[in-house]
Amino acid sequence: MADETQKVWSEVDRYFSDLLMKSDAALDAALEENRKANLPAIDVTPLQGKFLELLARISGARKILELGTLGGYSTIWLARALPEGGQLVTLELEPLHAEVASANLQRAGMMNRVDLRVGRAVDTLKALEAEGAGPFDLIFIDADKSGYPEYLEWALKLSRAGTVIVADNVVRDGNVVDADSADVNIQGVRQFTELVAAEPRLSATVLQTVGAKGYDGFAMAVVVA
Ligand code: SAH
Ligand code: DHB
Ligand code: MG
Q: Judging by beta carbons within 10 Å of its beta carbon (0-12, 13-18, 19+), is residue 183 exposed, middle or buried?
C-alpha cells in the first residue's frame, strides 16, 4: 500500500479512537506486556476490539468462544461484553502467549469469566465437544488462517440458530483474490469463505477494513437454521 494511503488510514484510525475510546489501563498494559514478551503485534486494533465488544453486546452473547488468544487483547474486549454469569472460552496454541494472556486477563479483572485452554485448537475443540460445551452465542475465529476451514466446521458444531460467527483477517491486503497464491493463509481464508458460501445453515457477509494495521476484513455470519 502506498505510504501516503497508509498514513491517512492511520490518521483516521487515531482520530476516531481518540474521540470514541477512553484511555484504558488494562488494555494499554496488555499491549505493553505483549511487546515486552515479544509477542507478534497482530492483535485487533482498538476500534476493532470495540467493534467485537459491540457485536457481543448487540447479540446478547452469554457464551463466547475465541480461537487464537495471543496476549488476550481481543479476549478482554469480548469478555467485557458478557453479562453477569457469562463465560468466554479462548483457545491458544503457544504456552508463552497463554501465559502472557493469563496475566493480562487477570489484570483486567476478567479471569473469573474466562476459560483459557492451551493446545492445538483442533484438540481443545474436540475436548469442548466431548464436555458438551456450547452452544456458543458468538464465535470469533482468529487462530492460524490455514485452519479456518476446519474451524468453521467446529464453529457450526458448537452453535445454535442465531449464533454469530466472526472471522478475522479474510482480506489480507487484498491478496484474498489471488486464487493461485502459494500462501497457505490465503488458501485457508479462500477455502473458508467458499465453505461459508456453500453452507445453507449460514447467512454471511464480509466487512473490509482499513486502519492502523493496514487493509483487511472480517467475515461475519449468522447461523440461520
Ligand atoms: N485474537 C488475538 C490475536 C490472535 S493472533 C487478538 O486480536 O488480540 C493468532 C493466535 O493464534 C496466535 O497467538 C497463535 O499462537 C494462535 N494459534 C496459531 N495456531 C493455532 C492453533 N493451531 N491452535 C490454537 N491457536 C493457534
Ligand atoms: C496475522 C494473524 C492475525 O490474527 C492478524 O490479525 C494479522 C496477521 C498473521 O498471521 O499474519
Ligand atoms: Mg487476527
A: middle
